[in-house]
Design a protein that fits this description.
alpha+beta; 6-stranded mixed beta sheet; 23% strand; 3 helices; 4-stranded antiparallel beta sheet
Length: 197
């Protein structure tokens, strides 16, 4: 028997019930990375872990303590409590926790339940991310600023990262580079150092 197709828009994903856990929002997509955390830790210690997780991964993070008890934390440390637990397309086992945590049998059971939840609510089809991944239309000013190459042969708008040596900055795409759109577009180029995950 084949697995039924899940349409995220038609069937909203219910929150995972294995509290407490962390949810990291993956970029500007519907993906939500879920990680179970120790149930026997006090609230303050879990909030500290959530702060470290948000800072290390540079992702918006939510500590879910119950069905109506959530603490949202931004990568720069802003925090807010709410009764809204995040929803989205669940994924797990992709991000490492910010610190060593003893793996209790109770936590292992919740992690198994989380994997079953992720399998149950994984939609079929394609995930569409940021609509500007293929760049933004280039203005006449962009075209003038980014056309040509500098004295090292690097396209104007790009430079080499001192840490990893890869190019980063803005790139003027012509002839369909990036999105396939033949109009001139400005692409944001990131080096490996921009991805802490």
């Amino acid at each position: 028997m084949s697995r039924p197709t899940v349409h995220a828009a038609a069937r909203p994903t219910p929150p995972f019930g294995g509290y407490p856990y962390l949810v990291a929002r993956i970029g500007r997509t519907a993906l939500r990375h879920i990680t179970v955390v120790p149930a026997d830790w006090p609230r303050d210690r879990l909030i500290d872990l959530a702060h470290r997780q948000a800072r290390i991964n540079r992702l918006e993070t939510c500590l879910c303590l119950g069905p109506a008890d959530a603490v949202y934390i931004t990568p720069d440390g802003n925090m807010g409590a709410t009764s809204l637990v995040p929803r989205g397309i669940p994924v797990t086992d992709r991000l490492v926790l910010a610190g060593m945590i003893r793996d209790a049998p109770e936590q292992a059971r919740r992690r198994d339940a989380l994997r079953a939840y992720v399998d149950r609510w994984r939609p079929s089809g394609f995930l569409v991310g940021d609509g500007l991944e293929g760049g933004r239309p280039a203005s006449a000013e962009d075209a003038a600023r980014l056309s040509g190459r500098d004295s090292t042969g690097m396209p104007r708008g790009l430079r080499r990262c001192d840490a990893c040596g890869e190019a980063f900055g803005e790139y003027l795409a012509l002839g369909g580079e990036g999105s396939g759109d033949p109009t001139a577009r400005v692409l944001d180029v990131h080096c490996r150092c921009d991805n802490p995950n």
